[in-house]
């Protein structure tokens, strides 16, 4: 279960210098590999060309490592620590709507749902991208359209994810983007 730290309405600051390592190197490397890969493949590299495919395989490999790490990794990396039940997700969203959501060290239930959705979309994009290289699916328009639709869905959810991270950073007075760089959050 993810550790509850501070109520948003209470906002009592923690003791100065009290920090805890939340995001381990595997989680951070996965996050920034996916960010870089998506930016490259959505905006810079030519669809279907060799560099595009290589980046896709790197992202697929990072996803495979992250899935394994979700069962074997550190406390906050494990799916068991943060995958929300529907009831926890609804309760969190209700608390958020009223400005009383708890600050959590790991993923909050909404962030966890977003992460799982993004990982599922990444798996779909990787699978359809790989399938498009097979003779059995060569030139199939439906596959290319599905691949593009999934990639565009990733873009939309990634923008929503980034906006939520900025919102939570302001709301809980901590830089969540920087914590994904360093791995540290305030206790």
UniProtKB/TrEMBL annotation:
One of its GO terms (cellular component) is plasma membrane. It is a multi-pass membrane protein. The keyword Acyltransferase does not apply. One of its GO terms (biological process) is respiratory electron transport chain. It comes from the Bacteria. The chain crosses the membrane at residues 29-45, 51-69, 110-130, 150-170. Pfam families: Ni_hydr_CYTB. Keywords: Cell membrane, Membrane, Transmembrane, Transmembrane helix. Residues 22-183 form the Cytochrome b561 bacterial/Ni-hydrogenase domain. The keyword Membrane applies. This is Cytochrome b561. It comes from Ancylobacter dichloromethanicus.
